[in-house]
Design brief:
Elements lengths: L1 H44 L7 H7 L16 H22 L15 H6 L2
């Protein structure tokens, strides 16, 4: 009789787990159906509420100083021009952000580590 009681307990546990999973799946399916129905009604009654993906991407563009767009290259001239553009942008940014205080920025006439590495 002890074995029959254990089998009944295992069967009850398995049944409880299965019923719980079915209720969970039903709830998830119902919540998804309700959300999609609401979205469909929103699109039906307010078609202008949808934002175009291009507008979202345009809104996400960062503001302020940007690094120049460069491609991967092994040309020393391209690398030198990229470093000069970044140095110039950094110098312009430090001049505009400092209000009369002394700055430790390097001037454009000083050699940068990149120029030394490129053999300038």
């Amino acid at each position: 009789m002890c074995v029959a009681l254990q089998a009944q307990n295992i069967a009850t546990t398995v049944r409880t787990i299965i019923v719980g999973l079915v209720y969970l799946a039903t709830f998830i399916f119902s919540a998804n159906a309700l959300g999609l129905t609401g979205l469909g009604l929103q699109l039906l009654f307010f078609p202008d509420s949808v934002v175009d993906e291009d507008e979202l991407l345009a809104a996400k563009t960062p503001k302020g100083p940007q690094l120049p767009k460069v491609t991967v290259t092994s040309s020393t001239d391209d690398i030198r021009r990229a470093f000069e553009a970044v140095s110039k942008a950094a110098a312009d940014g430090s001049r505009s952000s400092s209000s009369g205080s002394s700055s430790n920025s390097t001037s454009s006439t000083q050699a940068t580590p990149a120029d030394a590495a490129l053999g300038s």
